[in-house]
Amino acid sequence: xxxxxxxxxxxxxxxxxxxxxxxxxxxxxxxxxxxxxxxxxxxxxxxxxxxxxxxxxxxxxxxxxxxxxxxxxxxxxxxxxxxxxxxxxxxxxxxxxxxxxxxxxxxxxxxxxxxxxxxxxxxxxxxxxxxxxxxxxxxxxxxxxxxxxxxxxxxxxxxxxxxxxxxxxxxxxxxxxxxxxxxxxxxxxxxxxxxxxxxxxxxxxxxxxxxxxxxxxxxxxxxxxxxxxxxxxxxxxxxxxxxxxxxxxxxxxxxxxxxxxxxxxxxxxxxxxxxxxxxxxxxxxxxxxxxxxxxxxxxxxxxxxxxxxxxxxxxxxxxxxxxxxxxxxxxxxxxxxxxxxxxxxxxxxxxxxxxxxxxxxxxxxxxxxxxxxxxxxxxxxxxxxxxxxxxxxxxxxxxxxxxxxxxxxxxxxxxxxxxxxxxxxxxxxxxxxxxx
Length: 436
Ligand SMILES: Cc1cc2nc3c(=O)[nH]c(=O)nc-3n(C[C@H](O)[C@H](O)[C@H](O)COP(=O)(O)OP(=O)(O)OC[C@H]3O[C@@H](n4cnc5c(N)ncnc54)[C@H](O)[C@@H]3O)c2cc1C
Known about the structure:
Layout: E1 4-8, H1 13-24, E2 27-32, E3 44-47, H2 49-59, H3 61-69, E4 72-73, E5 76-81, E6 86-91, E7 103-106, H4 107-121, E8 124-128, E9 132-136, E10 146-150, E11 155-158, E12 160-163, H5 170-176, E13 182-193, E14 202-207, E15 211-219, E16 222-230, H6 243-259, H7 264-271, E17 274-283, E18 291-292, E19 295-297, H8 312-329, H9 340-375, H10 379-396, H11 400-407, H12 410-418, H13 422-427
Helix pairs in contact: 1-4, 1-8, 2-3, 2-8, 3-4, 6-7, 8-9, 9-10
Bound molecules: flavin-adenine dinucleotide.
The site of flavin-adenine dinucleotide (FAD) has 32 residues, from β2, β3, β13 and α8.
């Protein structure tokens, strides 16, 4: 029997399991803390061409088609004032890569599509309601596999562990101690509404009282809003709100937005909003060590980022693509069979490529967040930023740092830096195998 791989957390990491299973026929199990995946609940994402490339090249064209069926193209990017005045409008063509364009999608639809791809691949177990407590024998080495302890008292063993358990990762604690992301003083209230956007596109209005937000389509008749407010620390209130809590919150927020002169195109969706969640916006620099022994981190577990760039989930996808590519080019299935040194070589290469990209994403995200906040801080600062936005769109078609996010192609970048010839690697692939 081949090695057993355990994936902690069933977020974007499931795509990784499917990719590794496809390439190396590994025995794989995902352990997810949620009791079940539920339709219709939770937040949403923007998906950009850099992440869509991973979905296509690692997950396959069927997965890409499935994801895009559940998503809505942005088409335009509008920076606005709270009263509905447009400051600058960019066509999303400026971020397109071939036929890949940015789209909005509810998280549950993306998760469903990934799950269907995992089921198509077959042989991957998904065990729900399993919350990681701790890992034992992380170093593993030749003495044997890692022991995974769950909160319910059960335990399993695995040869290799991928920590895909998000920003509050317990896997990370076992690699580098407690390194929680840091709260930056802003909370986000988000939700969805069954109504089309009044104008096509994703829009970024800013208003008085240091409040800004983003409204974007996730379906022909569905949109999502995320409203950012400078707020003192109150982690107890960061959660999915109950319907009763949401009603109170929405009523107060809508009254405050109307008082401040926000356009009804922004207020109405909040009034009609469902699935209301409040999150404290937190981030931290990528951790210095992404792997130890038989355990490696993927996604927010290694580099939790604030959402202003809309690239957090894309970084998880790029991680998955990069790890799978490095493993393929540096020994294939043997990486998981032989001694730990080949696994560690792959992990080193993976971290070498991903660290600077994740750090850059973090810094860009902070910069974009600061820009939006500055627009809320008085007329002069606001006008200066608006001019900057307008000039960038006039000169470059959009903000240049958004292009750096969307253009990235993990295969091309990694292969160019390493001097790898991917065409020969592709000749060896199985008909059903990942298209790396
Ligand atoms: C308001 C907001 C808006 C955002 N918008 C965007 C956007 O537009 N585009 C974008 O790309 N990104 C966006 N992001 C970022 C994005 O949500 C994350 O970067 C992305 O989800 C990270 O994926 P992940 O798989 O690493 O972690 P997660 O998606 O957090 O998945 C982790 C999984 O692990 C599970 N888990 C956690 N702990 C345990 C445990 N102990 N045991 C077992 N399972 C566990 C969780 O239940 C979850 O299923 C946004 C984030 C926020 C807060």
